[in-house]
Amino acid sequence: MNTSVAAPPDAPATDARWWSAECPAPDAGWADAALRRQAQLTKPPGSLGELETLAVRLASLQATATPGADRVWISVFAADHGVAAEGVSAFPQAVTGEMVRNFASGGAAVSVLARALGATLEVVNLGTVNDPGEIAGVRRAVIAPSTANFCEQPAMTDAQLQAALAAGARSVQNAVAARAQLFIGGEMGIGNTTSAAALACALLDAPASALAGAGTGLDGAGISHKAQVIERALARHAGNASALRLLACLGGFEIAALTGAYIAAAQSRLPVLVDGFIATAAALAAVRLNPGCRDWMLFAHRSHEQGHGALLQALSARPLLDLGLRLGEGSGAAVAVPLLRSACALHNGMATFAQAGVSTA
């Protein structure tokens, strides 16, 4: 069932095309200052490799001489998918609602990582088939019990898409109000690797066989079936060319929320650390909707999920890690946060040659 509803009550009071508003550019002056400091630190130039690049990038994005990743905000968006009826997941759809409880109670991987990082974890329920109801620590922004089966009709109505985009923007508003230095978006939804792969295929004009992967653990036959389901959906929605329409036809509530969050973060000058395959599909949709948001994205890791490499290549992204991860939830991005913290600690805390009395080259 895909009952159309109005935007959730906590949606930002903005116009329907808020996502197209200009994103500010990173501060080139602070980048230059950070590069000058890196040249003065007690090390051979470039010897800290990507850690130097990260520190300079964060200084530019945060417009500061002392970049940081201490205050991290993680929003996990949960939603169900109508395409699950096509048998594209190894897990039953009930898992989505059950995992909402697990996130809130602290038992999920991203919950553990958030605690270890001292990060704020926000769980957002956008609509599950087995609604867990009111749960402490979960923000209800329910749009519908699930999207529609996109093999039969568009996954979302225009109103539902706007509600999902706005739900992501609201999470960014919460992060900004909490003075977060970094935003991570996570997702949960049985069937969402199918949705992300279908969206990626449409945005990249690629065949489903190239992007459909194991998801929750499908075998070869399951992956082949998944690709066939995606091809059916692509054929049905072939007349839609714009990223907005493709997101409505093939996306999920949580994928659209991530898309909205990435754009809103860029508009708010808040750097984002993009997670794996599903999050990167949302990032590509965000960049197609508002190209200026790309400058505000860092990419955490290369997922083991087939198709992630094509998305990263389309975004000219260099991920920080390659650990064979494919869990989602924002977990891979959380694992990468200590690298950002190390980069900032080195940049801010190392002595210069003059301070240490060390001879330069």
TrEMBL record:
Residue ranges of the TM segments: none
Entry keywords, A to Z: Cobalamin biosynthesis, Glycosyltransferase, Transferase
Keyword Glycosyltransferase: yes
E.C. number: 2.4.2.21
Enzyme class: transferase
Reaction it catalyzes: 5,6-dimethylbenzimidazole + nicotinate beta-D-ribonucleotide = alpha-ribazole 5'-phosphate + nicotinate + H(+)
Chaperone is among the record's keywords: no
Metabolic or biological pathway, per its Swiss-Prot or TrEMBL entry: Nucleoside biosynthesis; alpha-ribazole biosynthesis; alpha-ribazole from 5,6-dimethylbenzimidazole: step 1/2
NCBIfam families: cobT_DBIPRT (TIGR03160), PRK00105.1 (NF000996)
Descriptive protein name: Nicotinate-nucleotide--dimethylbenzimidazole phosphoribosyltransferase
Organism name: Cognatilysobacter bugurensis
Gene: cobT
